[in-house]
Design goal:
The complex is a heterodimer of chains A (498) and B (157). With 498 residues, chain A is mostly helical. Chain A has helices at 2-12, 15-33, 39-50, 55-72, 74-80, 92-100, 104-137, 142-159, 164-179, 196-199, 204-221, 242-248, 250-265, 271-285, 298-321, 327-338, 346-350, 352-378, 380-384, 388-407, 410-427, 434-457, 468-486. Chain A is globular and about 70 Å long. Chain B has helices at 5-23, 38-60, 77-100, 102-116, 121-142, and strands spanning 2-3, 68-69. The chains are: A mainly alpha (498), B mainly alpha (157).
């Protein structure tokens, strides 16, 4: 075991890897700080580049960029009243109110420091929970996996928005997209219509770039709302008073981090929903709820830790079961498959050094967030003045080349464009994107485990409840499905993707 | 563009019907109950049920929500042009990249899109050239992606 840790250390602290992390952190901070560019988009844009890297630097780039982006999303929220990423939307008004009171440095400092604490908390849970769960998962057969995938998809439908029906439609469409091509147990070419490009299935990477990057660009191009004006705030000592805040709100930090990790680990819900829920919880249990919305730091402390802890939480089911916890890990799983680092419990037994390296990457990414984030806050005004009319076209061309780069085929550019237009159209009609992506990622796994189970049980449906864990998972899944019929549904706050 | 849920529901019903009809042609696997058509058929049935529910919901809400809600950009000339240019240049890229080559196509692509977003022409052209060359360098030289040279093949660098 110590041997594996030594190997992990060597892999992580290799100069090339450190360089990648520094580059990725600059990229992540920039993408997070520019409104309209999201953390998920940062991950999608990284895929074509990481495709050409070794597994550990590839993962390092994504872990670092997303952690930075989620924090940096606070900056335009604070100075422009526009969240940089949806994960900051929950407390944008609060942060902006603080800026108007002359407390911009406290709002940004709290965002940074408690992002780091939340991120480290989530990482600690990941380090403890993932190997334990992996040991349990080693005993899983196709029955357990079938139910687990179905439960994950179910969560995605019910958490991703206040209208589960549209989430369900998107999930079914995602599963349908996963059906395309030869990749099914019978190896029969489905929905290929004689097209050779389609026999390999619809590429995950062009699909993701389209849905998470191109759709944002279209949204920007047709946006009619005026762009925000940067507040001329004096930003002094960012870290001053943070120790006092931590002492004043220890319970809030802990609660936010714990809730964030949990929400992150649930498939379909990511950092944005974690932040909305934590902000609501914070207000509900606060001693001074009347101060919320007037520039009060308590909610920022709690939900700022929640959205970063959710990032690490999402990796727990992703690494152990191959079930993504949010749209970012959905992309990561795609990359892991491309790198032959197929997620699953065997990853922990066969190549533990890779897993330990991922843990170390998380710790390191959160630690370098302190100096890098500080630099970013200092450079904030300059970053916010970057002309987006110039930036967006360049990103668009980057997307086109990125989609092409994976298989060197223009067909993938077409897939990306169609996916982008579809995602933009569907999202503006209230259809959430995350369930679709989970459907695409998990469709193959669902069908494979279903067919394997049916062959093993000779078509006996009761066999799906024959083993204790399978039965438990099955009953929970069925309960989630019937629950809306049993009671009147209460809407869950938040929507949209991370 | 916002459509009433009933329209989305109807579209889903059409899709579900087409799917059910199409998967009839899928072969069955001898000695096995679930063939390649099982999952798509189940999905089609699910989509059909969702479509029906959406039709019902949209019909109930027909008084409070319009059949077709036009977004703000339809009336905004700047945004309308920009969207048209965005669609146009991507089609242009797909059609022209092979024979015109990535570098020239990329410059036209960026310059046109920036022009549509009201970036001053000289600046747009300057950024277009620099950004295209930078992207070309990163992907062609560093990542070895075979971006097409097209008409620039004789002077390929």
């Amino acid at each position: 075991m110590t041997d594996a840790w030594m190997q992990a250390f060597a892999m992580v602290f290799e100069p090339y890897n450190i360089l990648v992390m520094l580059g990725a952190s600059l990229f992540g901070l920039f993408v997070g700080a520019v409104p309209g560019l999201t953390a998920t988009m940062a991950t999608a844009l990284l895929v074509p580049v990481t495709f050409f890297m070794a597994p550990i630097p590839a993962i390092a780039a994504m872990v670092t960029a997303t952690a930075m982006a989620i924090f940096a999303g606070d900056i335009p929220g604070c100075l422009l009243r526009m969240p940089g990423t949806p994960a900051s939307a929950a407390y944008t008004d609060e942060a902006y109110a603080m800026t108007r009171k002359g407390l911009a440095e406290v709002a940004l400092g709290a965002g940074l420091v408690f992002s780091v604490i939340g991120g480290l908390f989530g990482t600690a849970v990941l380090i403890v929970a993932a190997p334990t769960l992996a040991e349990v998962a080693l005993k899983f057969s196709s029955f357990e996996y079938f139910w687990l995938v179905l439960l994950g998809l179910t969560c995605a439908v019910f958490i991703s928005g206040d209208r589960p029906l549209k989430g369900l439609v998107m999930l079914l469409l995602g599963l349908l997209i996963a059906c395309v091509g030869l990749g099914n147990p019978a190896a029969y070419p489905r929905f290929t219509f004689g097209n050779t490009e389609l026999t390999g299935g619809i590429g995950l990477v062009p699909l993701m770039i389209g849905m998470f990057a191109v759709s944002e660009i279209i949204r920007y191009v047709v946006d009619t709302s005026p762009s925000g004006i940067v507040v001329e705030a004096q930003i002094g000592k960012v870290f001053r008073g943070m120790g006092r805040l931590a002492l004043k709100y220890p319970k809030q930090v802990l609660r936010g981090s714990a809730l964030g990790t949990l929400v992150g680990a649930l498939p379909g819900a990511g950092a944005d929903i974690a932040a909305w829920m934590s902000y609501a919880v914070s207000k509900r249990f606060s001693k001074e709820p009347e101060k919320f919305g007037t520039g009060h730091v308590e909610g920022i402390v709690e939900s700022g830790s929640a959205n970063n802890s959710a990032l690490a939480g999402a990796w727990i089911p992703a690494l152990v079961f191959g079930i993504p916890g949010d749209s970012i890990t959905a992309i990561v799983i795609g990359v892991l498959y491309m790198k032959n680092m197929n997620p699953g419990p065997t990853l922990f037994t066969v190549n533990p050094q890779n897993i330990y390296a991922v843990f170390l990457l998380f710790i390191l990414a959160n630690l370098i967030m302190l100096p890098m984030g500080w630099l970013c806050i200092k450079a904030a005004k300059r970053i916010l003045r970057v002309p987006r009319d110039v930036l967006m076209p360049v990103i668009m061309l980057f997307c086109v080349v990125g989609a092409f780069a994976i298989n060197n085929t223009p067909f993938d550019i077409g897939v990306m464009l169609v996916a982008g237009v579809a995602a933009w159209l569907l999202e503006s009609n209230g259809f959430p994107i995350t369930p679709l992506i989970l459907g695409v990622v998990l469709g193959g796994m669902l069908e494979e485990n279903l067919v394997t189970s049916l062959i093993k049980s000779d078509g006996d449906a009761l066999a799906f409840f024959g083993r204790p864990i399978a039965a438990g998972l099955g009953i929970v899944t069925l309960l989630v499905w019937v629950s809306p019929l049993l009671r009147r549904r209460r809407p869950i706050v938040g929507a949209a993707s991370t | 563009v916002k459509l009433n849920d009933a329209i989305w529901g109807a579209l889903l019903l059409v899709l579900a019907g087409a799917l059910l009809w199409h998967v009839q042609g899928f072969p069955s696997i001898p000695g096995q109950q679930v063939g390649p058509s099982a999952l798509p058929r189940a999905l089609a049935i699910g989509l059909g049920i969702c479509g029906t529910l959406l039709v019902v919901r949209g019909w109930r809400e027909r008084l409070s929500s319009a059949w077709l809600e036009l977004p703000g950009w339809i009336a905004a000339p700047r945004q309308r042009t920009a969207l048209a240019v965005l669609v146009g240049i991507n089609l242009f890229y797909l059609l022209a990249a092979q024979w015109l080559g990535f570098v020239l196509t990329g410059i036209v692509y960026l310059a046109a899109l920036m022009w549509a977003l009201r970036v001053p022409p000289l600046r747009a052209l300057g950024v277009a050239v620099v950004a295209t060359l930078a992207i070309h360098y990163c992907f062609y030289k560093l990542l070895k992606v075979p971006l097409p040279w097209g008409v620039l093949q004789p002077v390929a660098w």
